[in-house]
Write a structure and sequence with these properties.
By secondary structure, the chain is α/β, with parallel strands linked by helices. It has 4 domains: 167 residues, GMP Synthetase, Chain A, domain 3 (2-Layer Sandwich), CATH 3.30.300.160; 87 residues, Beta-Lactamase (2-Layer Sandwich); 209 residues, 3-Layer(aba) Sandwich (Rossmann fold), CATH 3.40.50.300; 39 residues, no CATH class. Helices cover 46% and strands 21% of the residues. It contains 25 helices and 17 strands. Strands 12-11-13-14-10-15-16-17 form an 8-stranded mixed beta sheet, sandwiched between helices.
Length: 524
């Protein structure tokens, strides 16, 4: 095929299709990128990606090569014609004898392969008249020959083989989502070089499927993204978004580039917003969510359920209060119906450029409750603190190890000359910090929530103002109404037999304290 011969020729076919408005420049770019990853011919790749049909490609190839086209799906080749040419030569040159009409009609992917034509003419003792076929049809025909041998080769069998090759190469993203939805996994991970993987509890389980190729991953990615999202991904090499799939549910997606290919992580978002007790979150957190003003921070490592806890708190407010809730999320995960409150959900990138831009004008939107998916910069922190001080309830998440590191991270993000003021503001408006981690159940039957909390009591306010965060940490080892450490939570879970001693040790903040508590109050 001409596009196989040189880069210039590859672009020529694509440009012809582009000029005739059969494909868009974005389609051509995607197809060329896929070709650079896995090889093959651009026309067949355009068909595989659903951008053009076989008949359209054959028409253009015929004009390009100046020879007639042939659709192998619509021809039957008798055994005497197949036997005219050795199977070895058919496979070597990727050609297919079709019929004799004075000359020998030969289907070819590249009708300008004159070396192949000369050799075949010598073998047959006849002149060869080439016709052009698509590479995908030729590949399917050669696969069919392996099963039918020298018997009649039917076009219907070639078509079935073509579909089989396509299915083997790429299980559709819809089928993968169906499998994911029917499992108990929390995440589906798609990476080139390994089979699709499901996260079961805290471990990955690879599916009994072939390893995925970079081309498959690109196909999956483009099928999941809109045109605008694709443009953004091409510019940034990383994209977060969420989408709803049929009746299977809602998923959060991250698509990113690694080693010149694309990887995809999908996380299941529960269809129903869970209650706090179902999450294992202490219900006392509800009382803070119903406060008229102040700052609630939900913290912990990435992927440990902060967004779900946040959604549960927003649902409580939505149900129990009559107020205006404005959320800034990246991306929007849980969809909130209006109950007693109005819930305005804004997505970063789609509804506002950034968290800062979304917060900059938020006071004009008459909010009672402001929900910030994640505070990432000093300006966002500053506005959030200002809102919490001036009669608004603010909820946000942070990636941090524990409640005290949350305080330090919030302060340290500001320049030194501003930190004293920020400490004072935080001491005045903070309601509670809740830090959580999901731990594998001892019997590997699911995940268990371990947490620590810090209620901003009078004593804690003074510690924050005076920069004595280390004293907060030391006092937290003794459980009380104001605070409770992750080590206490882990020890309790271990004593109850819900997590293993080793798993608790792995997640403990103060390992020796945790281990001593388990040995003193319970057994391993």
């Amino acid at each position: 095929m001409a596009e196989e011969k040189s880069k210039g020729t590859r672009y020529k076919l694509g440009e012809i299709l582009l000029q005739h408005k059969i494909i868009s420049s974005n389609m051509l770019k995607n197809a060329l990128r896929r070709q650079s990853q896995v090889g093959g011919q651009i026309g067949s790749i355009l068909i595989e990606m659903g951008y053009i049909t076989t008949d359209i490609l054959l028409d253009f190839l015929s004009k390009q090569f100046g020879v007639p086209p042939i659709n192998l799906f619509k021809v039957d080749i008798p055994p005497q014609i197949l036997n005219a040419l050795p199977i070895k030569k058919i496979k070597e040159y990727k050609v297919l004898p079709l019929k004799v009409e004075g000359n020998f009609v030969l289907a070819m992917v590249n009708p300008r392969d004159f070396v192949a034509i000369e050799d075949i003419e010598f073998i047959l003792g006849k002149r060869v008249r080439p016709v052009v076929v698509t590479s995908s049809q030729m590949e399917a025909a050669l696969k069919s020959l392996e099963s039918v041998g020298t018997h009649e080769l039917k076009g219907t069998e070639i078509e079935k083989a073509c579909l089989s090759i396509s299915d083997e190469a790429s299980m559709s993203i819809e089928k993968l989502l169906d499998m994911f939805s029917e499992s108990t996994a929390t995440d589906l991970q798609l990476t080139a070089g390994v089979p699709p993987s499901l996260r079961m509890d805290t471990e990955l389980k690879r599916l009994n499927m072939p390893a995925m190729t970079p081309a498959q991953l690109m196909t999956y990615a483009t099928s999941l993204m809109s045109e605008d999202q694709l443009k953004k991904f091409e510019a940034t090499s990383d994209l977060d978004f969420a989408f709803s799939y049929s009746e299977k549910g809602r998923f959060r997606v991250n698509i990113y580039k690694q080693r010149n290919s694309v990887s995809i992580t999908l996380r299941r978002i529960p269809a129903v917003i869970p209650a706090l007790k179902d999450l294992g979150v202490p219900e006392e957190l509800e009382s803070f969510a119903l406060k008229p003003q102040g700052l609630i921070l939900l913290t912990g490592p990435a992927g440990h359920g902060k967004s779900t806890t946040m959604a549960s708190l927003v649902d409580i407010i939505n149900t129990r209060r009559k107020c205006n809730i404005i959320t800034l999320e990246d991306p929007i995960e849980f969809l909130h119906r209006h109950k007693n409150s109005n819930v305005n959900q804004r997505e970063i990138g789609a509804d506002t450029p950034s968290f800062y831009e979304g917060l900059k004008h938020i006071f004009r939107q008459d909010p009672d409750v402001i929900v910030i998916g994640e505070m990432r910069d000093p300006d966002s922190f500053r506005i959030a603190l200002q809102a919490a001080e001036t009669g608004h309830l603010v909820l946000s998440t942070l990636h941090s190890r524990n409640v005290t590191s949350t305080i330090e991270r919030t302060i340290d993000i500001f320049p030194p000359h501003q930190q004293a003021q920020i400490r004072t503001q935080m001491a005045d408006c903070l309601l509670v910090i809740f830090s959580q981690r999901l731990i594998a159940h001892k019997n590997r039957t699911g995940l268990v929530l371990a947490y620590e909390k810090l209620v901003n009591s009078y004593k804690i306010k003074n510690f924050i103002r005076e920069g004595k965060t280390h004293q907060i940490r030391s006092q937290m080892q003794i459980p009380g109404e104001e605070y409770s450490s992750i080590d206490v939570s882990l020890a309790k879970l271990c004593i109850e037999g819900r997590i293993s001693f080793e798993e608790g040790t792995r997640h403990a903040d103060n390992v020796s304290y945790y281990q001593d508590m388990v040995k003193t109050r319970g057994t391993k």
